[in-house]
Design brief:
Largest sheet: none
Strand content: under 5%
Mean pLDDT: 83
Number of domains: 2
Low-confidence stretches: 1-13
Number of helices: 9
Order of helices and strands: HHHHHHHHH
Oligomer: single chain
């Protein structure tokens, strides 16, 4: 029996192919650097042979070296910041596409379902009837108010069988979203996905959801409460994004608002 934790005699640490590739890249870079330096020295030497003015060469050489620091500053601080901003903007657009898919497939219906279990729904519903007149300030104000709101999930009202059936059908979809590497850049939405997926896992382990003990129903109500707060918070931010960038999608989202009892997708 082997007691060491190192590689066996037939094993090698690291991938030899990748090491060879790295050596080739490094050797290629070193050779190219030496060639460029040699060409630069050759051109300076030709300049000296033609004009016989070493002072002129060193004046411009030192000036060029001095400008290198300014160039590095411009590239690293200014240009890099602009590229990072554009990259972040493009990433946020992709993330909002994922968030849109979540609310279209799961989120909106889940909010509509859980809101029936919340005794405070009538009180907060008025704040969440979003209209086309809302400004960014209105969205921020409402979002702040929701973050401080504590849902009152009544475990006795919870239709656990329906919730289990609904979420079990969406389990593969939720797993696919959790596997999206871009979500690492959006912590709050990732937390929402984990909260919803946790409820799904909990419910899938209940064989008889209609015959649960009261303490178990209270436990599930706590999980639902956690997910519900995150759901509303992300939904408000997503609605703000739609209003700013996709007015036609925002129009449909308003007409299917889960908090508006008069909402209807059909125009009348």
């Amino acid at each position: 029996m082997r007691t060491d934790i190192g590689p066996s005699p037939g094993e090698k640490e690291g991938d030899p192919n990748s090491q060879k590739i790295m050596k080739r890249i490094l050797s290629w870079q070193v050779i190219l650097g030496l060639i460029l330096m040699a060409l630069s020295a050759m051109v300076y030497y030709v300049h000296y042979l033609v004009f016989r003015d070493a002072r002129h060469i060193f004046i411009y050489l030192i000036g060029d070296i001095a400008f290198v620091f300014i160039e590095v500053m411009l590239v690293t601080l200014v240009l890099h910041s602009l590229l990072a901003y554009r990259e972040k903007k493009a990433l946020l657009k992709k993330l909002n596409m994922v968030i849109g898919a979540f609310f279209s497939e799961v989120g909106t219906d889940l909010i509509r379902t859980i809101s029936k279990f919340d005794s405070d729904t009538p009180n907060i519903a008025k704040q969440l009837v979003i209209t086309s007149e809302w400004s960014d300030g209105d969205f921020r104000k409402t979002h702040k108010a929701i973050l401080s709101h504590t849902p009152s999930i009544d475990h006795k009202k919870m239709n656990i069988s329906f919730l289990k059936e609904f979420l079990s059908k969406k389990k593969d979809f939720l797993l696919a979203l959790l596997g999206n590497p871009n979500l690492l850049e959006h912590e709050s939405f990732t937390n929402l996905l984990w909260a919803v997926f946790h409820i799904t896992e909990e419910l899938c382990h209940r064989k008889n959801p209609d015959e649960l003990a009261e303490i178990d129903r209270q436990h599930l109500a706590g999980d639902v409460k956690r997910a519900y707060n995150l759901l509303i918070s992300e939904w408000i931010m997503y609605m703000n994004y739609l209003k700013a960038d996709y007015p036609y999608l925002f129009s449909l989202a308003m007409r299917t608002n889960p908090f508006d009892i008069n909402a209807s997708a059909e125009l009348k």
